[in-house]
Amino acid sequence: MHKSEAEKIDSILDEHQQIYRRHNRIDNILAYCACIAWIPCIIAAFGVDGIYLKILFAVLACCGAVNRPGNPGD
């Protein structure tokens, strides 16, 4: 039996919704991992010698603060 156009559209929308949920879950996991990595960058920014390392860790810490989970930009 052939599917009607409405059934085909519903099937496609369901498939896209499943893909969106899967990607959203992966994005959240990666965002939380980035937050965990953000803490050592802050500590390292204050604990290392050398201006270039301080700048590097400070920039990484700022990037982690901007890309935290739940940020409206996500």
UniProtKB/TrEMBL annotation:
Keyword Membrane: yes
Keywords assigned: Membrane, Plasmid, Transmembrane, Transmembrane helix
Keyword Transmembrane helix: yes
Protein name as annotated: Conjugative transfer protein
Domain of life: Bacteria
Regions that span the bilayer: 29-48
